[in-house]
Write a structure and sequence with these properties.
Shape: rod-shaped
Structural class: alpha+beta
Helix content: 55-70%
Largest sheet: 6 strands, antiparallel
Distance between the termini: 124 Å
Number of strands: 6
Number of helices: 6
Strand order of the largest sheet: 2-1-3-4-5-6
Radius of gyration: 68 Å
Length: 341
């Protein structure tokens, strides 16, 4: 990487500096206190984000800028009380703490090892062998190997420690596991319990079905009882019908007697041919009289039968209404439609 140009604005003694570098070696010469060291500080601020703070801003200015142009990029650093940023070919990057954005490092290719102050010891001659070796590694990028080896050794130590811990834990776990050898028997017991639970569930389902059957049977029994009551009422109605048939027969007999009585009345109204036959007529008259008495008794029986028939007919209607309300329009035994009469 070759620096071609350096520009400073409001950085310490330099209000506006535009310095072009030689392709080979550039030497900055001047009297004291004109800003030679400020140029090094500005380059160090841009490449290493040092020094910190904002004391290097020129007196009376609000911000300063440092810009380096290389063969491949232009890197600019802007610093004020509110702004602290980098720009690489127009792309902005925010600066935090003492770190430098990787894009800036890649564009400049400079680190702290590339800078030596006026009062610093000669490069590497004042350093310890370990520090010189470290800096050589940084120059040749061998620090990556050292870091990798160090991380590998640390990882091996950490892994070995974890392996020992895990080995001890495995041993303890095996000892604890030996105390649970009876788990196999428990698993067999659990299998048996699962089978029994399955059977119990089946029995419970059967019990529920039986309860439904019992409930249905109870309802059927109630319906049967109501049907029996209706059957009793129907039987009483049938008996009343039989009695009505008997009364109708008696009425027929009574009508025949009435006809005979009318015939006898006609005979009585006719002329008596022979007074001597009065005794004979009287005997004949007594027969219809006795038959009239019998007819009165029959009429009284008919009145009693008619009263009983009305009472039984009312009971039959009530029983028929209860029967319809209880079982509907279908027979509970044969499920046939009941036709009202």
């Amino acid at each position: 990487m070759t620096i071609k140009r350096l520009k400073l604005s409001n950085f310490q003694a330099h209000a506006d500096l535009d310095l072009e570098f030689d392709p080979g070696v550039t030497t900055i010469v001047g009297p004291s206190d004109v800003g030679k060291s400020a140029i090094m500080r500005a380059m160090r601020l841009l490449a290493c984000n040092q020094p910190g703070g904002s004391d290097f801003i020129r007196w009376g200015a609000k911000k300063c800028t440092v810009s380096i142009e290389t063969e491949d990029a232009v890197v600019t650093r802007t610093r004020s009380a509110a702004v602290n940023k980098y720009e690489v070919d127009g792309r902005e990057f925010v600066a935090f703490g003492k770190t430098v954005p990787p894009e800036v490092v890649a564009a400049l290719g400079m680190e702290d090892v590339n800078f030596q102050g006026q009062y610093d010891a000669p490069f590497w001659l004042g350093e310890s062998a370990g520090e010189v070796s470290r800096q050589l590694n940084r120059v040749a990028c061998l620090e990556i190997i050292d870091e990798t080896l160090a991380k590998s050794a640390k990882l091996v130590r950490s892994t070995s420690t974890q392996l020992e811990v895990v080995t001890d834990r495995v041993k303890v776990a095996k000892d604890e596991l030996a105390a649970w050898d009876h788990i196999g028997d428990l698993e067999t017991g659990f299998d048996i319990l699962e089978v029994l639970k399955t059977r119990s569930d089946g029995v419970a389902e059967d019990v529920v079905q039986l309860e439904d059957v019992v409930d249905a049977a109870a309802e059927s029994l109630k319906s049967a009882r109501r049907a029996g009551e209706c059957a009793d009422a129907l039987d009483r109605v049938v008996q009343v019908g039989f009695r009505m048939a008997d009364v109708r027969g008696e009425c027929s007999d009574l009508c025949a007697l009435v006809e005979d009585l009318a015939r006898y009345d006609g005979i009585l109204a006719a002329r008596i041919p022979d007074i001597g036959s009065l005794a004979y007529v009287d005997a004949k008259w007594r027969v219809p009289a006795s038959e009239a008495d019998a007819l009165g008794a029959v009429l009284y029986s008919m009145d009693l039968a008619n009263t009983a028939y009305e009472s039984d007919r009312l009971a039959y209607r009530n029983a028929d209404m209860e029967f319809v309300e209880a079982i509907g329009d279908r027979c509970p035994l044969c499920d046939e439609v009941i036709h009202a009469k």
